[in-house]
């Protein structure tokens, strides 16, 4: 299997690195402090392929804390707020778009 | 019900402890994710969008009430209070924590349930007819042979690292409820001219990005030779199946590329070398398995008991009875399907409370037994007809008496982009909207049998290719679009549906399906011409015209 670091990295706008937390699978985002957060607003935002590659590399190195890190697009609102860049990431952030059979 | 022997119980318990150690080593960093991934997959653990997903096997779709209660317990204690029944007689839990998985597995093992080989490139859960053992006219109970295959393939070293996953399905009835023609190996029990029981063996069926209907490789294989013949197929696949390209690794591609004649010749060569050796199944083995299935002590009951006559005055009950109960092989009894497709609900989901309640009802009315069908519904296989009114009331109270079995709102759907990391588009909200559009039971009955199947990506877990109407989610420029096929079917006349035209956006899907159904109602020759038969007679063109004329 090709390592994420061997894949060609192409980004078209602001991006972040996201993964799932190893012990419980929760959605997490790579922070500028080389850690992970469940809050998207804590994400380190990168804007070039080189920056993305470096952020991904340090994320992949934390194999104990996170599973399957990858680069995902985001939008930066005028207020500076970070929003997911596609539907998949919206759903990962906000949860399923349906009512769960048993309310949380 | 099948009762595990000491060997099985030991195997399951040892597997739990093995996985507990693997999880511990993963969480400590001793195992990398690359090293751990295959181990977790072989125990049914995926990583989805929001969390780990845990897939538990329900071999040949048979559950005891104690097992169902334990599934409810897992849903409640380790998940979010519900589970999702799949198209391959499994149940999935969507919010499991890796750290708690060994405890969940241990709890399941106490009642003989496991998750072995519910994922990974090995032989998967062997599926069968959910009416096995109770269907009128059945050759014999196919679960006996399913169980033989389960024992034979479980942890079989030669089949644990196949080029790709491998799925068996078995039926013993003329009407195929197990979708055997879309499995890697499909087995149909029947009798030959000499009256001997054996199998028609089909190979190379499957859905996914390259759908194929299985082809008959051998019209009759005696039961004694089943294992040697199956092993011959798997050996040829193991030798020639492509490991260089995941999209071409399934046996269906090999069968297609070699051609069924050449593939069959390879299998025959292999088989002749091993036939009559240690893999011959002797009668004692089958009898031992048969003896571990317990069958109810049925009473002698009338076909039309007083309770049923009285309840016939209630139109709601009658609607449900006509829709959701089916002829049993024993007079006075019925097979009852429990629809997991309520209006506006996610197809195939059941809450822990519903599972507990069904377990109680199974104890009271069905000799403690529950079945799971690939259509994502449950069944109680042994209900006395005199008990139907009381059962209906109890099911209605827990939301499991929707009289829509085999009708337009009995939709098969994968979890889609709401849960699945492979999906391109959502499936569940589409299904929910369709159930609302077709919520009127009179309309649904007027339409008649119509299977809508929805997949959120080309991997086709929702079996869209073989839906009478198939809906496939795709992604175009960041938006959800859906391709519509019609004319597919998964039964003994299985066919892959035909695409009717360009994909339509998310917001148009329900309107398009309504257009197709309206076209069918206008075009059918008579009220009992099924949708799928009308499509066969007319082709897709009239439906295409109706859908795209104004779009």
Task: Considering the chains and any ligands shown, give keywords for the structure.
heterodimer; A: 104 residues; alpha+beta; five-stranded antiparallel β-sheet; 5 strands; B: 551 residues; Sulfite Reductase Hemoprotein, domain 2; Sulfite Reductase Hemoprotein, domain 1; 4 domains; six-stranded mixed β-sheet
Per CATH, the architecture of the largest domain in chain B is: 2-Layer Sandwich
- The total beta strand count of chain A reads 5
What is the first-to-last residue Cα distance of chain B? 53 Å
Q: Quick one: biggest sheet of chain A?
A: 5 strands, antiparallel
Describe the global form of chain A: globular
Question: What Rg of chain A do the Cα atoms give?
Answer: 14 Å
Report mean pLDDT of chain B, rounded to a whole number: 97
Largest interface: A-B, 25 and 35 residues
Kindly give the count of domains of chain B: 4
- Low-confidence segments of chain A, given as residue ranges, are none
Shape of chain B: globular
Q: Your description of this structure?
A:
Chain A has two helices and five strands, in the order E-E-E-H-E-E-H. With about 100 residues, chain A is α+β, with helices and mostly antiparallel strands. Chain A is globular and about 45 Å long. The mean pLDDT of chain A is about 95. In chain B, strands 16, 17, 18, 19, 20 and 21 form a six-stranded mixed beta sheet that branches. In chain B, strands 1-2-5-4-13 form a five-stranded antiparallel beta sheet. Chain B has 18 helices and 21 strands. By secondary structure, chain B is of the alpha+beta class. Chains A and B meet through helix 2 of A and helix 1, strand 13 and helix 14 of B.
Would you kindly provide a brief summary of this structure?
With 104 residues, chain A is of the alpha+beta class. Chain A contains two helices and five strands, in the order E-E-E-H-E-E-H.
Write the layout of secondary structure elements.
The complex is a heterodimer of chains A (104) and B (551).
Chain A: E1 15-21, E2 27-30, E3 36-37, H1 49-61, E4 66-76, E5 82-84, H2 87-94
Antiparallel strand pairs in A: 1-2, 1-4, 2-3, 4-5
Chain B: H1 6-28, H2 33-41, E1 45-47, E2 52-57, E3 62-64, H3 65-78, E4 82-85, E5 90-96, H4 101-109, E6 127-128, H5 143-153, E7 168-171, E8 185-191, E9 197-203, E10 215-222, H6 226-240, H7 251-258, H8 260-274, H9 283-292, H10 306-311, H11 315-324, E11 325-327, E12 333-338, E13 349-351, H12 352-365, E14 369-372, E15 378-384, H13 388-397, E16 412-413, H14 428-437, H15 441-447, E17 452-455, E18 469-476, E19 479-486, E20 498-499, E21 504-505, H16 509-523, H17 531-538, H18 541-548
Helix pairs in contact in B: 1-2, 1-4, 3-4, 3-12, 6-8, 7-8, 14-16, 16-18
